[in-house]
Write a structure and sequence with these properties.
heterodimer, A: 780 residues, alpha+beta, Aldehyde Oxidoreductase, domain 4, 8-stranded mixed sheet, 5-stranded mixed sheet, B: 490 residues, Ubiquitin-like (UB roll), Enolase-like, domain 1, 5-stranded antiparallel sheet, 33% helix
Chain lengths: 780, 490
């Protein structure tokens, strides 16, 4: 062996716990990162257009598609009759979501038929030529009108209860009842939904889908096609954003393309226009939260009773687990001695609402933080004091049990919040703001510090499993595949770091490959912030198996003890010899060592009994806190976020740069949800904010003017997660609640902080001005 | 007649005929040229994922502007240099400094918006050596990112600002002289170009006279300047428009003349160009322009288009009406002028005869001692359409009485409209807090606004009154407004 080639590098490039660029960053900036619409199109590709309902709730009396069929370029029209299997894409198995409506439409924008044409333009034009006759039925689109109409529930509601809330709520000296309206949110992933289906022999279909859940797309396509799941392969290299919007909502486009592709034996692509995407796909659930809280003069909570009603849309979709998670976070960071929480998942004649970063958690927490505000204004104290007074306690304090009977064992709230409070100079700034407001007739300021405690794990215990596939080829290059999908969060990068670290090779030796149901089956959605926890561990498990075989081989070949085999950067020490990694791999191949392994992981120790409302649904909690400062204009309701300081817990970060990116992005997205992003349906049930011209997500000029983001670098996950890290996708979204509460404080200043402004979300300039007016009247 | 247009795409000369007048640059790039780095995010000029640079010859030589390829029609591209994201990196793959800064600062997550951001940052980098945070935010007003929260992108812009590699590295610096020569050679077509496909015609006149003649012959032609409105008729409403007359290149329509009496703005002056002059001459108006669309839309959209389309929520009519602007329409047979407010007859109806087009607008200069202000209210501060937009122009006499006041609002009625009752109630009164308080309710006689997704009628009514209060405070030297940057206050 040529010893001169031996590497002496002390550490590899790209181990765990280092700030690495996103693996596709270079491709992103050059425009060479391939999204599905960028894949070279198969010969003879056809394009789908969609015929959508223009009624919110109606019987279909007749459908005349003659003009559609004869329009230029049209090859076929697909209706429910063309579906070989089930006309159903309900991810719940409840069969309440037809792929194409037949005799009943239940929301404006529901697909009725699809047109398949030579070009996308032709398909879109032809789709508008249908003549559909309807008989209108009564419709309701929001929570209040759903209640007025006695709307049914889309799933069985959940109840969480602990202690004796019925009696105890009457005991303390103070009690407040109130209600909060919380708006929904459009995902506004920059890449709209898309599916490209290429038919093959037998039942085979290759499906490229922009999805967070390739396995579900596979299952749904098989279900709609009436074919075995093995015939369908679903691939996803990357999405142009997901945020939960591509967890179940991509199924319909993939299934429609599959039906057309098989019928015509040609490749078919569906790429809805932005407006269609926004009309046809679900959003974050709106909520109305009716709360009843009893507390003492200090502001200590004694009992809470809250009802969380949600606009679910016309079908269940994920509304069950979303409303469940709202209840799981209805305690936010606070111990409720006596508590009763219930959900009310209401059916409405709107598109079926779905997963969105936080998955009901943000709405649950927002209700809890409103309760804190109510108490603070009632007892005349800084809301931060009320928060600290009510935080979960340390183990042994008797204040650690959640409403779902899980102990909070890893509580770092007080340390985190007090560190942020000190570093952000919260107290002095709050006083300065109060002084400023006293002398400022028009502009008012506000500041708020709010905490985050977010439960990590799918509450559907079975989903907490993952697989990975690792091959080492004869040149020592490594092929990595796992069930997680890349939507920008950097999952692929982090998992590659895990594998590079495990083998102690530079990360550029690890090829990250597109997620496909053909390599790792039966995967869960990349959701619930779980991507790295689950897939990182599964990939680690695969690498561990191969490493063990390599160690076995080396110890046999070199006749040394296994303990004498050590993986060093890009090389392996075997006894006294140093062997380059690729040399060892090649030698192992010739010794007929299997250089491929499937890894698997399931989260330990979790269980949940929904009926009883008891269990340990979460493996651990992720924590964080934010201080936001805003200024509002009391003449117009306009506002600006002057500054935000964040301290967030990601355990021992696998990649601090990517984690900070998640935190900054989540915060601004959360700000959008609570401020300018407003979904507005007209009286016909039409969503009128259906494009970026009318639906306003934050711009660069909306982000906090001063934006300080720090990781709680002292934190380590007490559970043995990958590298002792913690999930980061969703938790920081809720840091933005501090913005809404800071606006609320600025509003409260017009009535000398004596009245809780009860500012609902989104706090558009209009809502802010109207709250100012209301408080002025109350103050007079 | 010439049946093809010519332009340069990245490095390549292109002669293109046989295209539809509604074919967009984005579809051409992605479908015909397979240049898939440029993305479609919204197809309405609001997200910026399709941002490319378009270089053109002007009185300043060769200048490049960011535009939205999704609503830019091919027929508007004769004699231009189109630069896409694929043109930036060196042949050997070395990233352009703008791209490298985005990588270094972790400026991409999902990456779908990234090429558009790179192009907007590139446009900024080309035109501004020392951008302030305000300049950067302004340059990014037309780009949406849903992943990063923008902080790393702004940092990338700051990092790259000072980085000036050799002119040989940057493709547009390196090839400037050559591109200039090539554009000169294809620029001047001696006669009107007409490109036809399946009976649909793109007409590109060579002069304003030719344009007037064409419009006389084809009174039903759709006139397209910036396409920031008509673009959406096509991409969203799928309207068929034929023929289309493209006038964005007509330099005769792009002049701004300034003298002591006021400003004469050609109908084809883009918001960006208008901003430069207005920021100097009527600063309050300049600040408003900075809040219309994003940079890409401001580079394309024109003052004339904002008037001609008659929208009740166009941003420039309220300040123009408050300033007493005069509109000049032109046709093959001559010109006529009118006060701008008379142009707007009713919703969707304007005083423009077949064959007429908006030629220019004269904006009288407010007197030194006059007060003028314009306020726009929208859900999001930047790149949003007005919920309401109010403009105030006040002259006081020596005793502090209102000698004259003109108030105009958009978003409060079916057309941009003056608040004549409020004006009357104020005229002759002492300009004081009590006068203001007394006339607030007169707004109810001028406007009965609607409720829609931008605001309720109640908010519009209340905010209109409050804007009068704001204007009063401003004239009393007690202005209190939110401002993101200290400079803006100065």
């Amino acid at each position: 062996m040529d010893k001169s080639s031996f590497d002496t590098q002390p550490v590899i490039n790209g181990p765990m716990h280092t700030s690495l660029q996103h693996d596709s960053a270079h491709k992103h900036v050059t425009g060479s990162a391939e999204y599905i619409d960028d894949i070279p199109e198969p010969a003879g590709l056809l394009h789908g257009g969609l015929g959508l309902s223009d009624r919110a709730h109606a019987q279909i009396v007749s459908i005349d598609l003659d003009a559609v069929k004869t329009a230029p370029g049209v090859v076929a029209v697909i209706t429910a009759a063309d579906i070989p299997g089930f006309n159903d894409v309900a991810s719940t198995g409840q069969r309440d979501e037809p792929l194409l409506a037949t005799d009943l439409v239940q929301f404006h924008g529901q697909p009725i038929f699809a047109v398949i044409a030579e070009t996308r333009d032709q398909a879109r034009r032809a789709a508008r030529l249908a003549k559909i006759e309807y008989r209108d039925l009564p419709h309701w689109t929001d929570i209040d009108s759903a209640r007025d109409n006695g709307a049914p529930l889309v799933v069985e509601p959940m109840v969480l209860k602990r202690g004796d809330p019925e009696t105890e709520i009457g005991k303390p000296p103070l009690r407040i009842q109130g209600s909060m309206v919380i708006g929904g949110q459009e995902h506004f992933y920059l890449e709209s939904h898309i599916a490209l289906v290429i038919p093959g022999e037998d039942d085979d279909l290759v499906v490229w889908s922009s999805t967070q859940h390739p396995s579900e797309v596979q299952h749904m396509v098989a279900h709609v096609m009436g074919c075995p799941q093995h015939a369908v392969e679903v691939k996803t290299r990357r999405m142009g954003g997901g945020f939960g919007g591509k967890e179940t909502q991509g199924n319909q486009f993939a299934a429609l393309a599959a039906v057309a592709a098989k019928k015509l034996n040609r490749a078919v692509k569906f790429r809805p226009d932005r407006d269609e995407d926004m009309a046809m796909t679900g959003k974050r659930h709106d909520f109305r939260v009716d709360y009843d809280v009893a507390f003492d003069e200090e502001g200590r909570i004694h009992a809470v009773d809250t009802l969380y009603a949600a606009r679910c849309g016309f079908s269940a979709d994920l509304s069950g687990p979303v409303t469940d998670r709202a209840l799981f976070h209805a305690d936010s960071s606070y111990f409720y001695p006596h508590v009763h929480l219930a959900s009310q998942p209401l059916k409405t004649h709107t598109v079926s609402n779905t997963a969105f970063r936080g998955f009901g958690g943000p709405q649950g927490m927002l209700g809890a933080e409103r309760i804190i505000e109510e108490i603070a204004y009632a007892v005349g104290r800084d809301p931060l004091d009320i928060r600290k007074l009510n935080f979960y306690g340390e183990p042994g304090s008797g204040r650690t049990l959640t409403p779902y009977h899980q102990e909070v064992e890893d509580n770092i709230l007080m340390r985190l919040v007090e560190e942020l409070e000190a570093n952000s100079d919260y107290r002095a700034r709050r006083q300065a703001i109060i002084d400023f407001n006293a002398n400022s007739p028009v502009i008012r300021r506000g500041i708020a510090l709010t905490p985050v405690k977010f439960g990590i794990s799918f509450t559907m215990t079975a989903y907490n499993q993952a697989g990975a596939l690792v091959h080492i080829y004869q040149d020592g290059s490594i092929h990595l595949n796992h069930g997680g999908t890349e939507m920008g969060q950097g999952l692929y990068t982090k998992v590659a770091q895990v594998v590079a670290d495990a083998f102690q090779v530079d990360i550029d030796r690890v090829k990250i490959t597109a997620t496909t149901t053909g390599k790792v089956p039966n995967t869960s959605a990349t959701a619930a912030s779980s991507g790295t926890d689950l897939n990182g561990m599964a990939a680690y498990d695969a690498a561990r198996q191969i490493k063990e075989r390599l160690v076995d081989f080396a110890s046999r070949q070199w006749k040394v003890d296994k303990a004498q085999v050590e993986f060093l950067p890009n090389r392996v020490r075997v006894g006294d010899d140093i062997v380059p990694f690729d040399t060892l791999v090649r030698a192992a191949y010739y010794d007929r060592v299997q250089l491929s392994a499937a890894g698997f992981y399931k989260t330990p120790d979790i269980h949940w009994d929904r009926k009883a409302g008891k269990g340990r649904p979460f493996y651990y909690f992720a924590y964080g806190a934010a201080v936001s400062e805003v200024a509002i204009d009391t003449l117009t309701g306009e506002y600006m976020v002057e500054r935000a300081d964040i301290l967030h817990d990601v355990g021992r970060s696998l990649n601090p740069a990517l984690d900070i990116g998640q935190i900054e992005g989540a915060f601004v997205q959360g700000m959008g949800w609570l401020t300018t992003e407003e979904l507005w349906w007209d009286d016909k049930g039409r969503l009128r904010t259906h494009a970026p011209s009318t639906y306003k997500i934050p711009l660069a000029s909306d982000r906090p003017k001063i934006f300080n983001v720090k990781l709680a670098d002292w934190s380590e996950n007490r559970e043995p997660t990958i590298g002792r890290s913690k999930a980061v996708g969703e938790p920081p979204f809720m840091l933005a609640i501090s913005v809404l509460e800071a606006i609320s404080m600025a509003v409260a200043s017009v009535a000398d902080y004596a009245v809780c402004p009860r500012l609902d979300s989104p706090a558009t300039p209009e809502r802010v001005l109207m709250a100012v007016e209301r408080l002025k009247t109350l103050g007079e | 007649m010439t049946a093809a247009i010519r332009f340069i795409l990245n490095g390549q000369d292109v002669t293109l005929g046989n295209f539809s007048p509604t074919e967009t640059l984005l579809d051409y790039l992605r479908l015909r040229r397979r240049l898939t780095g440029t993305k479609e995010g919204c197809a309405e000029g609001d997200c910026g994922a399709c941002t490319v640079l378009v270089g053109r010859l002007s009185d300043r030589g060769l200048s490049y502007e960011s535009v939205n390829a999704c609503i830019r029609f091919l027929g508007s591209l004769h004699g231009t240099h189109i630069v896409t994201v694929e043109h930036l990196a060196a042949q050997d793959g070395t990233l352009h400094p703008v791209q490298q800064a985005m990588v270094d600062c972790h400026g991409s997550q999902c990456g779908f918006c990234t090429p558009g951001f790179v192009m907007s940052l590139y446009g900024l980098w080309l035109s501004n050596d020392e951008p302030t945070r305000q300049d950067i935010e302004s340059a990014l007003q037309g780009n949406l990112c849903r992943c990063t929260g923008y902080e790393p992108i702004v940092r990338a812009a700051e990092q790259v600002a000072q980085e000036r590699p050799s002119a040989l590295f940057d493709p547009l610096e390196r090839d400037r002289a050559e591109i200039l020569a090539r554009l000169w050679s294809i620029r001047s077509e001696p006669e009107t170009m007409v490109v036809e496909k399946d009976g649909a015609r793109s007409i590109v006149p060579t002069s304003i006279e030719a344009f007037a003649e064409i419009l006389a012959e084809e009174p039903n032609a759709t006139v397209v300047a910036g396409a920031t409105d008509v673009g959406l008729w096509v991409t969203k409403q799928m309207r068929i428009i034929n023929p289309v007359v493209f006038i964005n290149h007509l330099t005769e329509l792009q002049a701004i003349a300034v003298d002591e009496t006021g400003l004469t703005i050609g109908a084809g002056v883009s918001y960006t160009r208008a901003h430069e002059t207005l920021a100097e001459e009527i600063p309050a108006f300049g600040r408003l322009i900075d809040r219309i669309g994003g940079t890409q839309v401001r580079n394309m959209g024109t003052i004339g288009g904002n008037i001609a389309n008659g929208s009740p929520i166009g941003d420039t009519p309220p300040p123009l009406i408050a300033l007493g602007a005069e509109l000049t329409l032109r046709s093959h047979s001559g010109r006529r002028s009118m006060p701008l407010e008379n142009y707007f007859l009713a919703y969707g109806r304007q005083d423009r005869l077949p064959g007429e087009f908006v030629e220019k607008i004269f904006v009288p200069r407010p007197a030194e001692i006059d007060y003028f202000a314009v306020y726009k209210l929208s859900k999001r501060r930047d790149e949003d359409i007005s919920a309401l937009c109010g403009a105030f122009h006040l002259s006081l006499d020596s005793e502090g009485r209102v000698a004259a006041i003109r108030i105009a609002f958009g978003g409060m009625a079916a057309i941009p409209k003056r608040a004549t009752h409020v004006e009357q109630a104020l005229t002759g009164q002492i300009w004081s807090w009590s006068t203001i308080a007394a006339v607030r309710e007169a707004f109810g006689e001028d406007y009965q606004p609607l409720t829609d997704w931008r605001a309720t009628a109640e908010y519009r009514s209340l905010a209109a009154k409050n804007l009068l209060t704001r204007f009063f405070l401003e004239t009393a030297g007690q202005s209190q407004e939110l401002s993101r940057f200290e400079l803006e206050e100065a």
